[in-house]
Amino acid sequence: MKQENTLHTGSCLCGGVRFRISSALEPIQVCHCTQCRKAQGTPFATNTPVLAAAFELVSGAGLLAAFESSPGKRRVFCSKCGSPVYSSRDTLPGVLRIRAGLLDEPLAVQAAAHFHTASKAGWWPITDTLPRFEHALPAERPPLHARPSTDGRRRHTET
């Protein structure tokens, strides 16, 4: 059985923001909510939840900017090239939703499901067989990777 890589690297479009993730990745979540569509400029966003303690900013701390898209939800992006990097929520402390398209490595994980399909772009059909949810993950199932971090902080090591 092939084991997934537990060190992943990623960067924004201009390369100014670089990061490492030192954990296995959760399955990719495909979000069709209006906010994600507008933040990405695409019909959906692809995210993987990561413990904040496993996220290390290698370079570009000075390039990061944040926008509070709704109360308690911050979207962090590169202020130079505009690439969305991650989002975080006060209601899910210690978890970052990393934009999967920024990851450099080939990924062993796949997309798991489509969320917020009730607000999906009408011009983009969903043609795969992944599970679909009109809204967020059903309440009877805990959010993916919703374990709190030990210190709740991201590590920043500018190089």
Number of strands: 11
Distance between the termini: 36 Å
User: Runs with pLDDT <50, length 5+?
Assistant: 140-159
Structure class: mainly beta
Walk me through this protein's architecture.
By secondary structure, the chain is mainly β. The chain is built from one helix and eleven strands. Strand 8 and strand 9 form a beta hairpin. It is globular, with a radius of gyration of 15 Å. The C terminus is likely disordered.
Quick structural overview:
By secondary structure, the chain is mostly beta strands.
Q: What key phrases describe this protein's structure?
A:
1 helix, disordered C terminus, mainly beta, 4-stranded mixed β-sheet, 11 strands, 159 residues
What's the topology here?
Layout: E1 8-11, E2 18-21, E3 28-31, H1 34-40, E4 45-51, E5 55-59, E6 64-70, E7 73-78, E8 84-89, E9 95-99, E10 111-115, E11 155-156
